[in-house]
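## retry 2 of 3
previous attempt timed out at serialization; input unchanged, resubmitting
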Amino acid sequence: MKYVNVTVNHQPSSKKIVILSLNAPHNLNAINQELYEELKQSLEEISKDETVGALILNSEVSNAFSAGVDLQFIQGLSNEEASDFFTKLSKLFDMLIHLPVPTISFVNGYAFGAGADLAISCDVRIASEAAYFRFPGPQFGLVLGTQRLVNEIGSSKARFLALSGKKISGQTALDYGLVHELSADEEAGQKSSLKWARILANVPPYTTQTIKEVCHSGESFHELTRASVLEGDFIDRFGRYVQNNKKKVRH
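## retry succeeded, writing output
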């Protein structure tokens, strides 16, 4: 089963725009090994293709961009395997951050955990009024996208979102600077994404890469991600977190 659909929008006067659409409706685009591999392969291909002018990352699932990591998949791993997987995710987000073309994410519905980290790894973020963001990883002892939060919205807001696990709306995300534009609905968001992709595709590649380097000049935090998983019994913590959240849903 293919979890990432690739379409190409050809521009008459500039380079083509590639659209990566997450499409795993059975689990709201939760990231497992298969979705990870498809995303990684797509990004590697885009990074080598000089005819690409911009990338749009969105979802074909109407109520979710990505619900985070696949709970069942993670619970089937050992602590060491989980540390390897989350470290690979950290590197995947870095690959997206440093992709040599402008990137735009459009979030409609839920963007939780690793799904939110994936969205904010793009240069420009657009959200619909139905979007919600949440960063629950620290609730079960995972440090994954916190450095991106700090870089994008500042340490005070990042610390609050990371430690509290608070769910915020698209409007609050706009107020925080987590997204750059709010659209009325999915159709308007898709149109806006394409509009910005066309504009950004005209920026010279050297300029795009230079701006990315200036904005993301800090060190990578892959080892902090790995260490946070290997501290204590991660799978036990993760399992208890999942069970506690199931109880909250029931009540």
